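One record is kept unedited as follows:
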Amino acid sequence: MEPAIDNMPEVIEELLLYKDFITSKPYAFFGHSLGSRISYALACELHTLGLPLPSKVFASASRAPHCTSNKKYLHDLPHDAFIAKLRDLNGTPKEVLDNAELMELLIPLLRADFKIADTYVAEQHALPTPIHVFHGVEDEILDEHILAWQALTAQPCTYKYFDGGHFFIHQYGEEMINIINQQLT
């Protein structure tokens, strides 16, 4: 029943409540879409605080956080248009979208997430942590916004491209896990 968080600073503030737990053992970050930008923002804040950093950041299906989105904002679409866009994105199960009562509970959360995704632009800060980017070749993210992740690490940035759109992760999840495991060993 709490209001949904709709801005990156507040998301990071909440996550920092767990900074001692997060940094207590060697770790890596994986984020898909907005989660990639949250992972980067949290790693930047941990770096600023002088805390242990992730051994690697895995960014999936996301423009580099310092790039301005080239897409029309979704968070402020009228209700029916917002639901239609969720259907088009093909990331929310049809059973959820068709359940009006459940959607009434989820819409404020989804709008808040989309507001962050639509509006957040990070300051460019090159982390000492390597970044590995996963990208679906049919996703609507500009190539220059994918390649721009390199500017956010002092290490070489690596890239893996998959067939598919924004939710290529559903088809290639096992392969992605294998790549992550290989890079972490």
